Amino acid sequence: MYRSRLFAGLLLLLAFLAPACKAQLGKNVMIPAGSEEDHALTAINNATEPDKKLELIEQFATAHPDGDFAIVADELFVNFYINAKQYDKAFVYGDKLFAIDPDNYNNAINMVRAANEKGDTERIFASGEKANAIVQRYKAASPPSGTPADTWEQQRTQKLDALKENQQYVEQSLLGAAYQQKDPTKKAEYLQRFAKDYPGSPNGEQALTLAAFSYQQAQNRPKMLELANSVLAKNPNSIGMLLLLADDYSEKNEQLDKAEAYAKKAAGLCETAKKPEGITEEDWQKQITLQKGLALSALGQVDLEKKDNAAAVKTLTAATPLLKSNAATYARNQYRLGFAYANLKNTPAAKQAFTEAASVDSPYKAAAQGKLKDLAADKTVHKKAS
Asked: pTM for the whole thing?
């Protein structure tokens, strides 16, 4: 089954480093100029040898086991171990930092970054969800004592604007991590988790669409149907879900009238759909062409199941050029077309369609080759009989 290309390029996202945090959420620790702490931090920052830097950080942490400067010490450890690519140690100090400063947004971004670099999907999600929760708590916070409401709203808006780049980084990190999952069931579960975390994001529905396709790939039809129908209930014009359900019902010879209606609606929507942001015109045209081909192919399968072979030939033939960019769906369409022609006793056309199905590397290659052998054997029998 065709999988949406809207997520093309996501695998590159994990190579990106988290952008610098332009505005901190959590406790603000003041370092008095000229203080012992100021001198100690200057020495740490100026140290170029990793061993010496770590020694100075440990000395600072020993001198400040608690209080606000313990926050600074844990931050120093986190940054040191991320730069040293010792991610498990970075996680240990990140957890310690959250324990004393749970709204430390910069720490959440660092944990996402470390999890990205290590390739730890569960950590990416856990840290990303912490980052989102911190932002949500800040959005819901009341004005500090003595701060007018309008002043607070202005300050909050400015700080949230400064965090947008980091918020986008977190969102793309979660989406990329989910998309990279090899196991289709795990992929579906992470994509659903992403959609729950980002209900208002344009990527939310796309994630649910991919999750439904992933359940289909995992051969978990009940979960696929449940999810696809839930998406369609919220957005009746979801081309991906219309195609998925039309394809499933037509293949299973179930609810053919609904399959036909969904396929026709998807084909119509392909004519009027607007290109979303973040995709080139060329890629958009490839995607929408393929989707229209899938809609026509599903209609052709409905015609086959309804024994209307002439209509199936017409619809499947129209789908043929639209599906050539995808070997599996093209081969399946030609395999169906071969059956339609065979049912009409048009052996030459059937052989041509099966030959086209066998010409590309797909799950239908061997089956199409088998049908060609059957047609050749049938012709031999007829010759001997004559």
From this structure: 0.76
